[in-house]
Design goal:
alpha+beta; five-stranded mixed β-sheet; 6 domains; single chain; 31 strands; about 1050 residues; protein heterodimerization activity
């Protein structure tokens, strides 16, 4: 019996909307006709719109009465969601709907106790019987048990996300995702290589078992990418036929049977609506196309579900629709929709149906068939794909590549068998791929440079140097700059993934014109590329020097290049001497005696490092070419830091000294050190620079480096198999030397001062453009110019979520931020900078539309749950501190924003609206700044060699000193316990740490390295010790007067100054 209060609450929720009526019946719930309407993005409502084409909300499946249990469960969940969250959050994240589209939500948010008492519905009971008997073998269930155990033991290796099935709110589906990097490991750390796996827990009489609801392909690799995909290995361990299917250029969609009459439609790892209510998710768009295909074929979803249930299949399709999401290659109207390319058995072992079966299924159910051809031998496959690769076209159309489908004929590798043997069971389906770089990569470059020019302005100076290596791309950039200046409106939707292909086609048509031909001819007539000669003399040997910071993948590229071309490879990290720099240079020079090309594997991020290399080979005849692999700082520093930090974390301890630290995140501090010290490469420092890309995968980065070596050094181009082998060796590389245990000991965990989101934005670039416009108030423009002149614009902008000084009042938020920070894959957020606000002391940018980024490749419920539980008052105060006047603590920006939001017409406060400035951001870590022991000479920059030794040491005050000071403050008869002394010792040590950290942050904002007395006083003010600071100002003045007097009495000379020359390896 439901309490009357519950029934009344449910009635309120169910009668909240209007437009279409349906009656519900239950003995204890007498509901009036329930009316529900299409949901407005800004209006709180329990139900959201269905895609049934009627303009009304989703159907109730042809019945005016629903199972009362389902109704009550929906109502109870909706009640919790509506009353708890609709007050201030965007609806699209957590609204509900009756019918097919139940939005996903964090289970911890919406589970309610009344649900537990509800009886099991008849469909659920039927599902339980069917699931275990036919659709859930013991081996399949054991696989999920193994994944659950592995995810608890090592969440960085395997993790899962639970969703409510859109077609049935009573069923939860778990999506499994493996660490992409670990698919390459031999032996595999995973119990399955499935890429895309959705499972369901089913309660039996004795225990919980598991059913595989949808299963993707096993992870498959490019030629040579792993030992078992070399041409020789494929010939030994696979058998005919070899079915080559066109590699579609879209996004994958899985279609499977949730129940005998309901479907589950997912993307690779997710289902249900997007976190962003304004955009359809891939799964939603796939569902829309499925309905269209079924309608055209005269079929129903129930019929498809029954067939997939009976066969225990997952239909695997590619969503190709340029109106939804343009990729690189275009699709005409007749090829737009779902391209069916696989039917997989929902079993532990990978088993996919033969292509004739897939094609027949596509024809019967209205899908677009995937083009394919059949060959009999591996040599035929190689000959055919190499011929296609030379033109980049098949049947007159550009393509990305082929997926080759075959089967394993030899047993898996065991005992002494060669590593090149297949790791799959005999009889298993087996895929590999053959990818073509051109023109695919060139088209992708055109897309990226266009986005850059639209966001930063149509100027050649805004284009990353890494995109200028192709002559065709240089012609394209000149053309598109002119087009943007002529008519920017034609690019209005470009950054949203629309118009990319149309722009490219306009350019290709222009190339055929007389004007285009002349532009190409001018490009061809440019002088030969730098790096081939110097002052008329040809080069002899070559040094390849990365210009980088930790985490870009420079050693992986060096290992791969060394394998491909036989280059010498000298690693700075392998040198364990105290003064590593001279030894490193000596080793490079010695290596040149036996190698024509040597890779000087070190960050080389300082000018003096490049000078040392140049000077070491100055006397060589013919001259030695210095060739840089240069990672330019052409993105916001916070973006670069996130990319490199994630890579260091992924590699774990597979490095000589810098290890990924998932808890204290100490590796992030080291990366910041290098980034802050790095000096941009000037053209005259090297003979030729190859511009690299921070965001490229290892495969793409190696392709870029190989192209440069072929073009500049004249080495023969390796085939795809060789490149694949080099990638496999680079991924499996382990350093020969590692730091001693003492050197690599974890840092003492520093006190956390605040938790924040690091904003991936260049404030000088974004705000500078806005302040240059005509409508800017004079006072705001003057303040902005002053901040720039005084170098007071925040170099590392962030959004503070909670500060230590807000404790204990915001302990709950503090703990939730801590949990998010320690998560193995912290989410990537997105937000909009909506307004710039300032007074005469501080400038800030307000934050709006805070959400989980749709670009987050590791999306799970953590980020969404965090946002849902973020209090309104916290969301309302979110801001980025742009800058402050000297001596003004940044915390004043928070007060300014809160005050301005209450009254936007305050005297002395100016504001300026920003237009569509969207920013991404990730967990900033803890806001910890290491505290120096005291005033000291500026330290030399941290070195590769010293990374493992760069650890914050305990700096407690000696207990005797503490005791002496305490005794001087109390009567002589008083006694002080040891506990009290130790407590004060700890308190004072922490106080020193806090004060120094605040002072260090001020120095960092002003780009100074030495903390002065005024900085310490500033730190005291920010922590609330204004009165003490005023007193200490007098003490500081007297101290300096005394030091000046004492200094005048000292004899001059005879002592070193103590200032160290800035080097990486001293």
């Amino acid at each position: 019996m439901l309490p009357k209060l519950h029934a009344e609450n449910i009635r309120r929720v169910l009668t909240h909307t209007n437009h279409t009526s349906h009656h519900f019946s239950h003995p204890n719930l007498q509901c009036k006709p329930v009316v529900y309407r299409e949901t407005s993005p800004r209006t709180p409502s329990v139900f959201s719109r269905s895609q049934n084409g009627t303009g009304k909300t989703g159907s109730l499946r042809g019945s005016s009465s629903l199972n009362p249990v389902i109704i009550l469960r929906i109502a109870l969940r909706a009640k919790v969601s509506f009353f708890k969250f609709s007050r201030h959050l965007p609806l699209g994240v957590y609204s509900f709907q009756i019918g097919r589209r139940i939005i996903k939500r964090p289970s911890s948010t919406l589970k309610t106790s009344p649900m537990a008492a509800l009886p099991t519905s008849e469909p659920a009971a039927e599902l339980e019987k069917l699931s275990i008997s036919k659709h859930g073998s013991e081996k399949d269930s054991e696989l999920i048990d193994e994944l659950l155990a592995l995810s608890k033991k090592n969440p960085k290796l395997v993790r899962s996300t639970e969703y409510t099935a859109p077609a049935d709110p009573n069923i939860n589906v778990r999506s499994w995702k493996m660490n992409e990097f670990k698919y390459y490991d031999v032996p595999s750390p995973f119990p399955t290589l499935a890429r895309g796996l959705f499972t369901q827990d089913v309660q039996t009489n004795d225990r919980v078992k598991h059913r595989i609801v949808a299963r993707g392909y096993d992870k498959f690799f490019n030629i040579g990418e792993v030992p078992w995909t070399t041409w020789a290995s494929l010939e030994s361990h696979t058998g005919a036929p070899y079915i080559l299917t066109l590699k579609s250029n879209g996004c994958i969609i899985f279609i499977a049977a949730l129940t005998p009459d309901k479907l589950l439609i997912t993307s690779k790892h997710a289902l249900g609506p997007s976190n962003n209510a304004e955009y359809k998710s891939h799964a939603q768009f796939g569902e829309r196309w499925l309905r269209k295909h079924l309608l055209d074929a005269g079929k129903t979803e129930e019929q498809l579900a029954a067939t997939l249930w009976e066969k225990n299949w997952t239909a695997v399709a590619e969503l190709c629709d340029d109106s939804f999401e343009e990729h690189v290659l275009p699709y005409g109207p007749e090829k737009t929709g779902l391209h069916l390319h696989g039917l997989n058995k929902c079993t532990r072992q990978f088993k996919t149906m033969d292509q004739p079966v897939v094609d027949a299924f596509a024809k019967e159910w209205g899908f677009i068939q995937t083009l394919s051809t059949v060959l009999d031998t591996v040599p035929q496959v190689r000959e055919f794909t190499e011929a296609i690769g030379r033109t980049g076209k098949w049947n007159g159309e550009a393509l990305e590549g082929f997926v080759v489908r075959t089967r394993v004929v030899d047993p898996p590798t065991k005992g002494g068998q060669p590593a090149a043997a297949s790791p799959y069971r005999a009889g298993s389906s087996f895929f590999f791929k053959v990818k073509f770089d051109e023109p695919y990569m060139m088209y992708r470059d055109w897309r990226e440079v266009t986005k850059t020019l639209l966001s930063k302005g149509p100027s050649m100076g805004n284009v990353p140097k890494s995109k200028l290596r192709r002559p065709e791309t240089r012609v394209y950039i000149n053309w598109v700059i002119g087009e943007i200046k002529r008519d920017r409106e034609q690019f209005a939707t470009y950054t949203h993934g629309k118009g990319i292909i149309a722009t490219r086609e306009r350019f290709l048509n222009w190339l055929r014109s007389e004007e285009g031909s002349k532009a190409v001819k001018r490009q061809d007539e440019l002088p030969a590329e730098r790096g081939l000669i110097r002052e008329g003399e040809k080069f002899g040997k070559t040094i390849i020097a990365p210009i980088a910071v930790p985490g870009v993948g420079k050693t992986s590229i060096a290992v791969a290049l060394s394998h491909l071309f036989g280059f010498g490879h000298i690693q700075s990290d392998d040198i364990k001497a105290k003064k590593a720099a001279p030894i490193f240079i000596k080793n490079v020079v010695n290596a040149l005696k036996t190698n024509d090309v040597v890779i000087a594997d070190k960050n080389n991020h300082l000018i003096q490092h490049r000078q040392q290399l140049r000077e070491a080979v100055r006397t060589f005849k013919p001259p030695v070419r210095l060739m840089a692999l240069n990672w330019s700082f052409d993105q916001p520093l916070s973006t670069i830091h996130r990319i490199c930090g994630d890579r260091v974390l992924q590699r774990g301890e597979n490095h000589q000294s810098l290890h990924g630290d998932p808890l204290a995140k100490s590796h992030e501090d080291v990366i910041w050190q290098f980034m802050n010290q790095a000096e941009e490469l000037a053209d005259e420092e090297v003979d030729v620079a190859v511009e690299m890309d921070w965001e490229e995968t290892l495969e793409d980065a190696l392709t870029r480096a190989v192209d440069a070596c072929v073009r500049i050094l004249g080495v023969p181009r390796p085939d795809q198999e060789k490149v694949g082998e080099a990638l496999a060796i680079a991924r499996g590389y382990a350093p020969s030397t590692k730091a001693n245990k003492a050197d690599s000991a974890k840092a003492k965990k520093q006190a956390v001062r605040y938790y924040a989101i690091l904003a991936e934005v260049d404030l000088q670039d974004v705000l500078g453009k806005r302040f240059a416009e005509a409508d800017v108030p004079g006072g705001g423009k003057a303040f902005w110019e002053n901040l720039k002149a005084q170098k007071r614009v925040a170099p590392r902008p962030h959004i503070t979520l909670v500060h230590q000084k807000a404790l204990p009042g915001e302990t709950v938020l503090w703990e939730r931020c801590k949990e998010l920070h320690l998560h193995s894959n912290p989410p990537l957020f997105s937000f909009r900078l909506s307004n710039i606000v300032w007074n005469d002391r501080v400038m800030a940018a307000t934050v709006a539309d805070f959400a989980v980024s749709t670009d987050d490749s590791h999306q799970d419920e953590k980020g969404l749950d965090f946002i849902l539980k973020l209090p309104f008052e916290v969301q309302n105060r979110l801001h980025v501190t742009v800058g402050t006047r000297d001596g003004v603590p940044p915390v004043e920006a928070k007060t300014l924003v809160e005050t301005w939001k209450k009254n936007k017409h305050l005297s002395g406060v100016g504001s300026l609206e920003l237009d569509n400035v969207w920013v991404k951001g990730s967990d900033d870590g803890s806001g910890v700044v290491p505290a120096p022991a005291g005033e000291a000479p500026e330290p030399a920059p941290i070195t590769d060699q010293e990374v493992g030794e760069y650890r914050e040491q305990d700096r407690f005050l000696p207990i005797a000193n503490v005791s002496r000071i305490m005794k001087a403050a109390v009567p002589g008869t008083a006694k002080i316990s040891k506990e009290a002394k130790e407590c004060v010792q700890e308190c004072v040590s922490e106080f020193i740490s806090f004060i120094t950290s605040e002072a260090a942050e001020k120095c960092q904002m002003e780009k100074r390295k030495t903390i002065g007395g005024e900085d310490i006083l500033y730190g005291m003010v920010t922590l609330g010790f204004e009165n003490y600071a005023e007193t200490l100002k007098i003490h500081l003045a007297k101290l300096r007067q005394h030091q000046t007097s004492a200094g005048n009495d000292k004899p001059r000379g005879g002592e070193a100054s103590g200032n160290a020359t800035a080097t990486e390896d001293q």
